[in-house]
Design goal:
By secondary structure, this protein is an alpha+beta fold. The chain is built from 23 helices and 14 strands. It has a four-stranded mixed beta sheet. The protein is globular. Helices cover about 35% and strands about 10% of the residues. The longest helix has 23 residues. The protein binds iron/sulfur cluster (2 copies). The site of one iron/sulfur cluster has 14 residues, from helix 8. One iron/sulfur cluster binds next to helix 8.
Length: about 500
């Protein structure tokens, strides 16, 4: 067992109000430089929709992430064929890169004209100006959340890659204005266990820190090949056109090293985010990443270790983990949500990078579909919301395509648990659900009363310290990777190997 720690952020999608405070706070801190204007290390998308960059989830187009080839080996989709030769052959041209038109042409407005325009018959206007060319733009035709609050518009929703395999009536639920239901998906770098960005970089500029899992990009080493942009299926590394270096979300490491929450999480108005530590077994990364689509989420749950297991604690201590990290892992909201209660799920696990951020899928109204099934009637006394959860306005298949590699059972499990917790609290507060119905719902999905209390607390009234269980980093005792080996390790999994012989060495 090779125990390591990974930071993990969880998002409760029922609570996201799409306010973009997270995106703006991230941008104000990290991406205000020239060349970075179009970058949103944290972005918020309306779903169903095409996202940012446009249709980023379509790996037929972008070739991001990993695939298992015919001989059973894990290969970057980008590098079909023998890795190094193919890399060298393509180093100057990558057909799969998104262009600026797939993101958007960043712009500002000519605000000065509002104050300085000469007197005239018309109101002065602030025309849009390109932040790349400095020229006025005829019109703005794309933005980082262009389909904001237009999730159901046929124009955008029908091009959403997650619509695949949905029936005509399911699609109608997500695209017809009088029926539609939409929700928001905030996204940052997933600080994956098997990061495509790290494995693809010909220069070895990207690395994954063994001690906390944060994936970073060394700009002194970056040579602008932009393989990371192509290989990341989430499109979270960005190329800075002004300085010729790539950049990416750094999980606010200067903040989390001192136990402060990430800027996006700290500023989140809906308090939808929690941050914690996960302990995992690095020896099982490759085997997990090779699992078939329908088993990959379970594989990810298996690779996460129980931080209260004495054997895990001993192995963690032997690997040099401090006690405050082990204690943080034991109180981790990420562990409880993903592994213990099984209500959070990874975004597109089928990309096989083993993303370490997790989403609690949203509940949506059931009444509409249930009424349709019964010819327009619904008797709340007789009908049973709990067992109708698969008739939600958002089709299960859609959520499964987004968060479970198509495995609807995993989404159903999460939604039923969320519904059982709601029933428990409704009964506790108003007493109109019935003790029997609550008991039945809780036992059907394997929740105890304590679970219902704890799930409610972390998702609604938890304090700052409960939501952000972030231990102070002991940089003074951390082992490090040998940067001289980085090129050799390109294309392998489990980057950021801790080697005890490197402790305290200066490079
Ligand atoms: S999401 Fe994963 S693959 Fe993409 S940049 Fe982050 S660590 Fe790399
Ligand atoms: S700040 Fe929070 S609630 Fe607002 S968009 Fe971001 S994640 Fe959603």
């Amino acid at each position: 067992m090779d125990v390591r720690a990974n930071f993990s952020m969880s998002f409760n999608l029922d609570k996201c109000i799409g306010c973009h405070t997270c995106s703006v706070s991230c941008k104000n801190i990290w991406t205000t430089r020239q060349g970075a204007e179009y970058m949103w290390w944290n972005n918020v998308e309306t779903k169903p929709g095409t996202g940012y960059p446009v249709t980023w989830e379509d790996q037929e187009r972008y070739r991001g992430g990993w695939e298992v080839n015919s001989s059973g080996a894990l290969r970057l989709k980008l590098l079909k064929g023998p890795g190094k030769i193919r890399t060298l052959a393509n180093i100057f041209f990558q057909p799969n890169l998104p262009t600026i038109d797939d993101y958007y042409e960043p712009f500002t407005f000519d605000y000065q004209n509002l104050f300085n325009a000469p007197a005239g018959d018309d109101q002065p206007v602030a025309r849009p100006k390109s932040l790349i060319t400095g020229e006025f733009m005829e019109k703005i035709s794309l933005g980082p959340n262009w389909d904001d609050d237009m999730g159901g518009s046929p124009l955008y929703a029908t091009n959403d890659p997650n619509m695949r395999n949905l029936s005509a009536s399911q699609k109608e639920c997500l695209t017809k204005f009088h029926k539609l239901f939409y929700f928001y998906v905030p996204r940052i770098c997933n600080h994956c266990l098997n990061p495509g960005c790290v494995a693809s970089c010909p220069s070895g500029a990207l690395y994954k820190r063994g001690e906390d899992g944060i994936v970073l990009l060394d700009q002194d080493i970056c040579r602008a090949w932009r393989f990371c942009v192509s290989a990341c299926p989430y499109k979270k590394p960005y190329y800075n056109w002004a300085n010729g270096k790539s950049e990416k979300c750094i999980f606010c490491y200067p903040r989390v090293e001192t136990a402060q929450a990430n800027a996006c999480a700290h500023s989140c108005v809906g308090r939808i985010r929690t941050v914690g530590i996960l302990l995992y077994d690095a020896e099982r990364i490759e085997a997990t990443a090779k699992l078939p689509d329908d088993r990959i989420v379970e594989g990810m749950r298996d690779i996460i270790l129980d931080p209260k297991d004495p054997k895990v604690i001993e192995a963690a201590r032997n690997a040099g983990m401090e006690d405050n990290w082990i204690k943080a892992a034991q109180n981790s909201p990420a562990y409880n949500l993903f592994k213990k209660w099984r209500i959070s799920l990874p975004n597109h696990p089928e990309f096989r990078t083993l993303p370490m951020n997790f989403y609690i899928p949203p509940l949506s109204p059931i009444l509409h579909q249930a009424k349709a099934d019964r010819g327009g009637t619904f008797d709340p006394e007789a009908d049973d919301f709990f067992n109708e959860i698969d008739k939600m306005r958002i089709p299960l298949k859609y959520l499964a395509n987004l968060f479970a590699a198509g495995n609807e059972a995993l989404v159903l499990e999460s939604l039923r648990k969320q519904m059982a917790v709601r029933m428990y609290w409704r009964q506790k507060r108003f007493g109109d659900v019935g003790e029997g119905a609550v008991r039945s719902a809780m036992s059907q999905c394997g929740l105890s009363v304590q679970d219902a209390e704890d799930i409610y607390r972390i998702n609604s009234i938890a304090t700052y310290e409960e939501r952000f269980v972030i231990p102070v980093t002991h940089r003074e005792s951390k082992t490090i990777s040998d940067p001289r080996n980085m090129y050799e390790k390109r294309g392998t999994v489990g980057f950021g190997t801790k080697k005890r012989e490197f402790v305290g060495r200066e490079w």
